Amino acid sequence: MKNRILLFIFILFGITTYSQSPQGFTYQAIIRDGGNALVASAPIGMRISVLQTTSTGTAVYVETQNPTSNANGLVTLTVGTGTVVSGSMATIDWSAGPYFIKTETDPTGGTSYTIVGTSQIMSVPYALYAGSSSPIGTAGGSLAGTYPNPTIASGAVGSTEITDGAIVNADVSASAAIAYSKLALSNSIVNGDLTANSVTTSKVADGTVTTNKIFDNTILNADINAAAGIAYSKLNLSNSIQSGDLTASSVTIPKISATGTADNTTYLRGDGQWVAPSATPSGAAGGSLSGTYPNPSIASGAVGSTEITDGAIVNADVSASAAIAYSKLALSNSIVNGDLTANSVTTSKVADGTVTTNKIFDNTILNADINAAAGIAYSKLNLSNSIQSGDLTASSVTIPKISATGTADNTTYLRGDGQWVAPSATPSGAAGGSLAGTYPNPTIAANAVGTTEIADASVTIPKISATGTASSTTFLRGDGQWVAPAGGITGTGASNYLTKWTTGGSVIGNSLVQDNGTSVSVNYPVQGSAQLFVYRQQQTAVGDGQATIYGYRDRNSQNQGTNYGQNGSNTALTGMSFWGDDYSFGVGGWNYNDFTRTGGVIGSEIYAAYWGALGYKSSSTQFYGVYATTALTVGSGYLPTNETIGIGGGFFGNLIGSVTKGEVIGQLNSGELFAAYNSGNVYTLGKNVELVEAANHVKTPVYAVTSVESTIYAKGSAKLVNGQAYISFDDSYKQLLGETPEVTVTPKGNCNGVYIASVDKNGFTIREMNNGTSTVAISWISVGNRIDNRMDKATEMVSDPSFDRNIQQVLFNDSNLDGKGMGIWWDGNAIRFGNIPAHLTTVKRPIEHK
Question: pLDDT (tens digit, 9 = 90+) per residue, 459-488?
Fold first, then answer.
């Protein structure tokens, strides 16, 4: 597995103090392997080079080191203290920079350096910089000897030259033996000054250790003298002595509190008395017992009802073959439904007359339950007004069954009024329906004969009542006359032209419309490629707003559409292509775009407050497939100082909102407030480059600091006061930290060196080495993983080696007729590429009824 070193390298120019000029600075790095795991608590092989001028310049100093990483994978070393390969730190002229530090790393601890990183040394410690100059000549003032190696002159360092608080323990000789008279120790020795066990018995004055000086629960058994003889009055033992406190045989007979006499004939009874026990019983047993003592048994028949506790007999006490007689059971009115097994009550068990109406569940009696010979009496049936036609068998209603007056015979008929009557031969009375008058001679009623009553082709010319002569030269006029028509309007025209009125409506001539029976055109010869072809030459004198076809929609009351479909939208002009063949569209618009601000199709608010165009050529002669704006009437180019609204383009998709691809540039964004806002993670295959504009309008490209983890940084300056300082992180930084960060500190002045005493998510404490008390400025940098540092599901997808290749095939240029694009879809768990499943591409259309 290939190992790698974290890209974030922190170079701490902490001055390492020697007896000469300091010649080293601290270097830190976090080591990770190819699986992004920390290489923790392991030896690391490193070769460090200081390069001059460029990142590939001459190595002026090379050394090797073998540090061990800590539990967080961090290695810390001082460049200048390793095994020198070439060069010398002391001879580097730091003013002749820039300088770069090159690190070669073997994460296995050897010398097979597989990881190489180079970064610029952005600043040089003052002590190193100054140490590179070599003055010459005789030293003076507080110095003696000659440069470059002068010495401090004898007696030059007095109290004035020594900074208050500068003398530390290391400055005092181990054999200095400073006299007590030179120390001001009165009431100064504190607990921390005493070494362990330094206060002996002789140092503690008699009576010094009072109750308050003894820590609770401190006195142990060994602290009490074997001959202490602590008085009982100083002990609180009331109700405290437990069994474990008594030694074996410590409780003797005299210690036991009991009544009676304790001797060899008495025993301690449970009620606290010394008593003589009774002898073991013997002889024949009697009463409810039989046999002999000491092992009698219960006598036969001794256990009766009285001796058995009520409720004591349970099911297990009764023998499976007991066959208890019914006479010994009190079951009267006790058997309940749950006691009966299914079908246990047979016909013989049911007493005659037991099943009454109440016992029969409503709607229970079926046809099969009634005996075929039951002969249920009519009086027991409720058939009043119940017999229906379906209840009667064929021919069951005979003449005698019909209730009617009169005589029923072969000369009478049943009349509707319930009488048997003989019909008359000749009808009489008033006629009705389509007849008028009275029988037997009615007439056809007025208006009774209409179109339905007249047979087809039965109305001939002789049947028509009109004045005048009916001939081949006359026509029936609306006033009931046969007349010859007056002469009509005449005229001539070209073939296929629809006619129109000319000369004040008195002559027929050609219109603009032609119809050859297959296609129609207006103001142009018929075109076989179009069902309707319309042509118009625009007239400049007419002004703007001209159209070859103009659709105008109005309504008599509000008529809301329901959706964006063909049958749910209301439009002034509609086009539909029924079959979705290749290169087929519902509406098309084309333009030669000879000039600027032209396009194929435009859609706009009526006064162009916002509009969009397809196939658009802009004023700068740029070409756009789609162009949209909302800024035409409100101004553009600068961030408005007044209120404004409008979105130039909106794209919404179930899977992807929009896609753009350019052969040179994929997308351009510009905004006065900001150019783009992304709500969600952003993935980029390539660099993030910012152009920072300086005061002289020179733009400098800068690159984003990257990491294989989601990290956050903080930096700052502070002051070490009396050898220590606490730095509290900013609240916004603390809230974004997902772990305790790594902190690097650099002192900006002379001190013993510093170290981080403690660090957590709230801040860190810095202390000077060797218990120093310097007051010096420091700078620091902190880096830690963010709270959202995790491998997102989407990150795993886009990191797949095939993802970008598939995306490029999705962003296919349809102008390329030699191939086709790749499909992309979301299967509910992951992004998929390839042929999109049919069930996702099939549009479910409603059934249309024609």
Answer: 888 888 888 888 888 888 888 888 887 666
Integer Cα distance of 651 and 649 in angstroms:
7
Query: Do both 769 and 808 map to the same domain?
Result: no
Domain residue limits at 53: 4-132
Same domain for 725 and 820, yes or no, is no
Q: Which helix (H) or strand (E) holds 840?
A: helix 838-841
Cα pseudo-dihedral 80, 81, 82, 83, rounded to 10: 90
Shared domain check, 684 and 666: yes
Euclidean distance between CA atoms 478 and 642, whole angstroms: 75
Of 703, 722, 747, the position where a domain reaches its end is 703
Determine contact, residues 572/552, Cβ cutoff 8 Å. yes
Same-domain check for residues 8 and 126: yes
Rounded to the nearest integer, the mean pLDDT of the chain is 79
CA angle 754, 758, 763 (to 5 degrees): 100
- The count of structural domains within the chain is 5
- Supply the CATH number for residue 73's domain: 2.60.40
pLDDT for the residue 126: 36
Structure tokens at 449: 């004969």
Helix (DSSP H) and strand (DSSP E) numbers for the chain: 5, 46
User: Rounded to whole angstroms, what are the CA distances from 59 to 50, 81, 86, 124, 669?
Assistant: 6, 17, 8, 17, 45
Write the CATH number for 756: 2.60.40.2080
Q: How far apart are CA 30 and CA 38, in angstroms?
A: 8
Q: Cα 624 from chain centroid?
A: 37
Tell me the pLDDT band of 12, cut-offs 50, 70 and 90. Answer: very low
Q: Which of 703, 724, 753 is the last residue of a domain?
A: 703
Q: What is the pLDDT of residues 345-364, one digit of tens each?
A: 777 777 787 777 777 777 77
At 71-128, the pLDDT tens digits run: 888 888 889 999 999 999 888 888 788 899 999 988 888 998 888 888 888 654 433 4
SS3 800: coil
Q: Measuring CA to CA, how many Å separate 63 from each of 13, 102, 186, 270, 630? A: 17, 11, 52, 92, 65
CA trace torsion 424, 426, 430, 432 (10° rounding): 100
| pTM strictly above 0.90 | no
Q: Quick one: tokens of 779?
A: 């700078």
Structural tokens at position 586? 């519902």
Nearest to 29 by CA among 49, 46, 52: 46
DSSP per-residue codes, 666-710: S-----SS-S---SS----SS--EEEEE-TTS-EEEEE----SS-
CB within 8 A of 152, min separation 6: which ones?
Answer: 142, 143, 144
Candidates 692, 723, 687; CA nearest to 705 is: 687
Contact 655, 826 (CB under 8 A): yes
Integer angstrom CA distances of residue 123 from 78, 227, 721: 16, 75, 24
How many C-beta atoms lie closer than 10 Å to residue 736's C-beta? 18
Q: Would you say residue 466 lies in a domain?
A: no
Determine contact, residues 814/821, Cβ cutoff 8 Å: yes
pLDDT at residue number 16: 40
**Three-class SS of 179-246:** CHHHCCCCCCCCHHHCCCCCCCHHHCCCCCCCHHHCCCCCCCHHHCCCCCCCCHHHCCCCCCCCHHHC
At residue 148, the pLDDT reads 53
pLDDT at 659: 85
804 & 744 share domain: no
Asked whether residue 431 is domain-assigned, the answer is no
Tokens 């219960």 belong to residue: 298
Of the given ranges (275-289, 670-684, 757-771), which has the lowest mean pLDDT? 275-289
Query: Do residues 8 and 75 share a domain?
Result: yes
Alpha carbons 45 and 108: distance in angstroms, whole number: 7
- Per-residue pLDDT tens over the stretch 776-804: 999 999 999 998 877 678 888 888 889 98
Task: Tell me the average pLDDT across 5-9.
Answer: 38
Q: Cβ contacts of residue 690 below 8 Å, gap of 6+?
A: 701, 702, 703, 704
